[in-house]
Amino acid sequence: MSKRAHSEDFTDVLIIGAGLSGIGAAYHLQEKCPDKTYAILEAREQMGGTWDLFKYPGIRSDSDMYTLGFSFNPWKDPKAIADGPSILKYIKDTASKFGIDKHIRYSHTVIGANWIEEDALWEVTINIKEQKETVLKCRFLFVCSGYYDYDQGYDPLKGTASVFNGPVVHPQHWPEDLDYTNKKVVVIGSGATAVTLVPELAKKAEKVTMLQRSPTYILNLPREDKIANRLKRILPAGWAHSLSRWKNILFSLGLYKVSRKWPGKIRNFIQNQAQHQLGADYDMRHFTPTYDPWDQRLCLVPDNDLFLSIREGKAQMVTDTIKEFLPNGIALNSGKVLDADIIITATGLKIKLLGGMDVKIGNKKTDTSSLHVYRGVMFSDIPNMAIAVGYTNASWTLKCDLNGQYVARLLNFMDKQGYRTCTPRFDPERYTSEPLLDFDAGYIKRALDVLPKQGSEHPWKIYQNYLKDMWTLKYSKLTDNSLEFK
Fold this sequence. Notes:
The chain is an alpha/beta fold.
């Protein structure tokens, strides 16, 4: 824990967000920079981020917990693909174990941050419990609030479904009293949320239909990692966790690399696995995407639960587009009508950078689309500020964990050298600009007008590769031609 208490209106480091990445950032900060004071600002009334927000049935991780979990606190549950409540408990237990929970200020929504050059500090404007506005000051700002809108999801059907007589529910705002027992349910969507919801709803519903505009690659993953559980029985917890973590890191990296090099072979492998589960006569067009594996994120299902619900007749896949909503269902452009008592719009997320706060330098607002991302951690021309954003092709926490360790290294280096500010500077004559992510997901394409960019080479290139990032962020030297210290 920090040795020095911070005042209510000033702290060395201000962390925004008390989810997986915020708790991880706090751990590395207090472990490696024990003399730094810090506070965590959380807009919600509870910690946990995503895992406290989403309450829909069956919510679970879409990555194994040995890589999604913290590197410094072993995951002990035998289930590698964990349910939401278990993950939330793990986050809370971790925060309590390391005393991080004592640094969290709840119901603190960050509205904006302004960099004061002459004082070398941030003035951060905060709304407390949506009633009181105040200003906190800090030397370094670490934004760990993720990149999507917690207030509302993406809903392209807004308004058009008003003719429907039953409930229309977005998973981000799941009603606790929604009874779907013996009801006909249509889930609109094809991503991780949809493939999670369908088999869970099918346990009680009369019939569940997953209506997708286009198919997604869906691959089975055992709910329990047998090798990891065996290692836990014969090795100390820390060793077993590290070995299991590295096994799964290397496996996911290998799968991604092979998918990009031989997309046809991986496409056939994934489809053959699905065909084997669904039966030789099943129409595989519902599982045949038009893009290559990992052009968009691959969906994982634990213990074949989605395939089993389809094979048993409790769920069905329909690949079509919506013509119109009816009082009792959905009319499709193929002429087919889907009867429904409940419609679930699992249509995706909305990007919301930096928790929605305005960032200003000397009272001049920053245009995020004009920025470049340095080492996947900092922004060009923004002093003393870092972000924690995870991978698109692996567990979110892997990259956030590295970013937290890099920030701690950077702060210690600045103290040792007597620097007060650190600012990345992008040189357009040396590097060319590229889109931030080589990723075809809808939520990324919808946010191109606000997303920053990457550069053509290191240290401005985003590699989406844990091994490269580990060397860059944990071990390589901190000084280069792009980083300006004062």
